[in-house]
Amino acid sequence: MQADGILGNLTLAELFPDTKLPRKLDDPSLVWFKEAQRLLGTREHPGVGSNPEIIEWVKDMKTLDYKSDDIPWCGLFVGHCISSTLDREPLPTRVLSARAWGAFGIATKPTPGAVMVFWRKTRDSGLGHVGFYAGEDADAYRILGGNQSDSVSLAWVAKSRFIAARWPATVSPPVPVEVTVARREPLSWKEA
Fold it and tell me: What NCBIfam families has UniProt attached to this entry (predicted)?
């Protein structure tokens, strides 16, 4: 194991080998996912002006030029959650591009806290959406993401739109676990 400063499942398994430690949505070692949960309800400002909190996220990514929440910000949200909690984690060079997150970290299967990348409009459009895995049902993933109906919220994204699941490279690899959630809302098609 490599030291990462996070008391994760691998460390706990070494300390307590007889204890089963499935990764769940409330796992305290998912610090980036905890930050995402903390931001639930954050909304962009409609019309003129931007939500200063969303603009403030740019400070975590010093080289990023972002001045208006009218610009799609799902990648900015994911970048903020990761860079503000995992200071050694390299981010994609194009943080704002949802599809760029498909090369982030290491590949994994969908599991709590995983970065989930989807296509938007059409598979070949180059447009996408990115957020965090927060459950699934037979046909869709529940995604905790930014710029979902202009807010940080939970939305259902069709599994047919799925491109990749990624995991921070500086954190111990996950033991993927499926979290089944009952869906009561329609599928999302409005992520930007």
Answer: TIGR02594 family protein (TIGR02594)
Per-residue model confidence as pLDDT tens digits over 3-62: 666 666 566 566 666 554 455 888 888 999 999 999 999 999 877 789 999 999 987 677
pTM: 0.86
Q: What does the pLDDT look like over 133-143, one tens digit per residue?
A: 999 999 999 99
From 3.90.1720.10, 3.40.50.150, 1.10.510.10, 3.40.50.410, which CATH number describes the 9-167 domain? Answer: 3.90.1720.10
Per residue, what are the HEC states of the chain?
A: CCCCCCCCHHHHHHHCCCCCCCCCCCCCCCHHHHHHHHCCCCECCCCCCCCHHHHHHHHHCCCCCCCCCCCCCHHHHHHHHHHCCCCCCCCCCCCCCHHHHHHCCEECCCCCCCEEEEECCCCCCCCEEEEEEEEECCCEEEEEEEEECCEEEEEEEEHHHEEEEEECCCCCCCCCCCCECCCCCCECCCCC
